[in-house]
Design a protein that fits this description.
heterodimer; A: 178 residues; Alpha-Beta Plaits; four-stranded antiparallel β-sheet; 5 helices; 55% helix; 26% strand; B: 72 residues; mainly alpha; 30s Ribosomal Protein S18; 4 helices
Chain lengths: 178, 72
C-alpha cells in the first residue's frame, strides 16, 4: 500500500476529456472537415470513446493569429485512459494542420445530480413566475388607483361648474340685489 | 446614504444554477472590463466559488481567440 502512495505514476482509469482546436484558414471547408475527422480517428485509434462531436465551422477570431482573422473550430468530448492523453498532446502539437488546441478535464454528472439540478431549476422558474405575477398585480392596483383619482377629479369639476352657474344666476338676479 | 457597492447582489450563476463556460463568450463579456480586464467580484456580485471558475474560463477563452486579451 505504501508503495502505491509513494509511486509517482498514477493508477490507470478512464477520464472524461474535452478538446477544442482551430484549423487554419488556408484550407477550404471540405478539407477542414477531413482534418476534423482525422482528429476523431486519432482518438478512436487509442481506444477512446467519443461521446460528442461538434464542428463549429468558420469563425472570426477576437484577435489575429499569424496574420489571419478567420479559422475553423472543432470540438470533441471523449473518455480516455489517463496515461494516453500525452500521446494526443504530442501528436497534435507536431501537426502543422492545427493552429491551436486546448484539452481540459470535464466532470461527468451522475443521474442523481442531474435530477437534483432539474429540481432546483424548476424551483427557480416557479420563483420567477411568482415575482412576475406580483409585479403585474401591483401595476394593476396602481392603474386602478390612478383611474379613481382622475375620475373623482372630473366629477368634482362638473359639480363645481353647475354650482357656479347657479350661484352666478343667484347673484345676477336683480331681485336679490335690491 | 448607502453606496451601491455596499448593497448585496445575487450571484448570477447561483441564481440560474449554471457554471461559467469558456465556450460562450457572450456571458463572459459581462464580467470583463472595456479594456478586457477581469472585474472583481465585489462589483459584479459573483460568489467566490464561481469567481474562481470564471477566471479560468476567461483565460481559456482568451487562449482560443474567443475573447480578446485587450480592446481594439
Amino acid at each position: 500500500m505504501l508503495q502505491f502512495f509513494m509511486s509517482k505514476t498514477k493508477p490507470s482509469g478512464l477520464i472524461h476529456y474535452e478538446i477544442l482546436f482551430i484549423i487554419p484558414n488556408k484550407f477550404t471547408d471540405d478539407e477542414a472537415k477531413d482534418i476534423f475527422k482525422k482528429v476523431g480517428q486519432l482518438i478512436t485509434s487509442l481506444e477512446g470513446k467519443i461521446t460528442l462531436e461538434n464542428y463549429w465551422g468558420k469563425k472570426k477570431f477576437a484577435y489575429p493569429i499569424k496574420h489571419e482573422n478567420y479559422g475553423y473550430y472543432g470540438l470533441f468530448e471523449f473518455d480516455l485512459e489517463r496515461t494516453l492523453i500525452s500521446e494526443i498532446n504530442t501528436k497534435l502539437r507536431l501537426d502543422n494542420n492545427i493552429l491551436r488546441f486546448l484539452i481540459i478535464k470535464k466532470d461527468v454528472k451522475n443521474e442523481e445530480q442531474i435530477k437534483k439540478d432539474q429540481k432546483i431549476r424548476a424551483k427557480i422558474e416557479d420563483k420567477k413566475a411568482k415575482v412576475q405575477e406580483e409585479k403585474e398585480e401591483k401595476e394593476k392596483k396602481i392603474k386602478k388607483a390612478t383611474k379613481k383619482i382622475t375620475s373623482k377629479k372630473d366629477e368634482d369639476k362638473k359639480i363645481d361648474l353647475k354650482n357656479l352657474e347657479e350661484k352666478l344666476d343667484d347673484v345676477l338676479n336683480i331681485d336679490n340685489l335690491l | 446614504m448607502k453606496s451601491k457597492l455596499n448593497k448585496k447582489k445575487e450571484c448570477q450563476f447561483c441564481s440560474e444554477n449554471t457554471n461559467p463556460d469558456y465556450k460562450d463568450p457572450k456571458t463572459l463579456y459581462n464580467f470583463v472590463n472595456y479594456y478586457m480586464k477581469i472585474i472583481g467580484k465585489k462589483r459584479t456580485g459573483v460568489c467566490s466559488w464561481h469567481q474562481r471558475k470564471l477566471t479560468t474560463a476567461i483565460k481559456r477563452a482568451r487562449k482560443m481567440a474567443l475573447i480578446g486579451f485587450t480592446h481594439k
